[in-house]
Design a protein that fits this description.
With 283 residues, the protein is mainly alpha-helical. The chain is 75% helix and 0% strand. Helix 1 packs parallel to helix 13 and helix 10 packs antiparallel against helix 11. The chain is globular and about 60 Å long.
């Protein structure tokens, strides 16, 4: 079942394109792997799926390097000096730290469920449709808050926001929900500016996806996957993810999440139809 280079390129594109868009990278990777004739619940395949996320994470680290450096320095300064804790970057750093813990703990505890039953295309189809309703609700709540007097900027983010977004991020372990779709929606419901919520979603992704990618390395069998396809998948996911990050930040500055909902719902219904009539096996 060694991956071909074409398989690696396709999966790298899918990973890089969907990791940060609110459409679910895991869900799309599961469908893509199925269409490529791969066994989606095979340990080598699930390991590869997690590992190519490292390419997307590298893109995030490079794109937001100055922000990451700023927050890290503020966090270290706050640990050493009580006066430095007045810097809001110290609070924002803690929001990212505490927000990253829940998904790591839940992901580790539920790994057998995530790698097994949740890989079903029925789950992906249902999550694509059902979470779209949450995204729609989030946009309505956010619009109502704007009408009442404005949204919250990055300076208004608290550690509590990090906890809330971190808990909601756990739902993204269900393929089809989308990590960014979950965290951005939670931010909008909390009245956080859409661009700020998106940036915070990226920051929360770094620890979560890094941990998932490194953990996934343990399942990678290069005799099955192949070293060459692994490297190609990582490089392709990096390039495409970097472009996706830049595009999404520009998009959310002037647009709502509704265009993604218009994609998710038909995609979920079409996938359910394909599984229901037997065009695709659910697992």
């Amino acid at each position: 079942m060694e991956l071909s280079y074409l398989d690696a390129i396709v999966l790298g594109i899918v990973e890089g394109l969907t990791e940060y868009l609110p459409v679910s990278s895991t869900g799309h990777l599961t469908v893509a792997e199925k269409l490529l004739g791969l066994q989606v619940d095979h340990p080598a395949v699930t390991g590869y799926t997690a590992t190519i996320q490292i390419g997307a994470i590298a893109a995030t680290l490079i794109y937001f390097w100055r922000d990451i450096d700023r927050l890290f320095r503020a966090w270290l300064a706050g640990l050493r000096s009580p006066a430095a804790r007045a810097d809001h970057d110290y609070t924002l750093a803690w929001a990212v730290i505490v927000g990253s813990l829940p998904v790591g703990l839940v992901g580790f505890a539920a790994q057998s469920l995530i790698k097994g039953p949740l890989r079903s295309l029925w789950v992906v189809a249902a999550a694509l449709v059902l979470w779209s309703a949450v995204m729609w609700y989030a946009e309505r709540v956010y619009a109502a808050r704007l009408a009442r007097g404005g949204d919250r900027s990055e300076d208004d983010i608290t550690a509590r926001d990090g906890v809330v977004l971190g808990l909601v991020q756990c739902l993204s372990l269900i393929p089809g929900v989308s990590r960014s779709g979950a965290t951005i929606s939670a931010g909008l419901i909390g009245g956080i500016n859409r661009v700020v919520a998106t940036r915070l979603s990226f920051f929360l992704a770094i620890p979560a996806l890094t941990a998932a990618g490194l953990y996934g390395l343990g399942d990678v069998d290069t005799s099955v996957i192949g070293v060459g396809p692994m490297v190609v998948g990582l490089v392709v996911s990096f390039v495409v993810a970097y472009a996706s990050i830049a595009w999404l930040l520009r998009f959310v500055a002037t647009n709502s999440l509704r265009p993604f909902i218009w994609y998710r719902v038909p995609a979920g219904l079409l996938l359910a139809l394909a599984v229901g009539v037997g065009w695709l096996a659910p697992v």
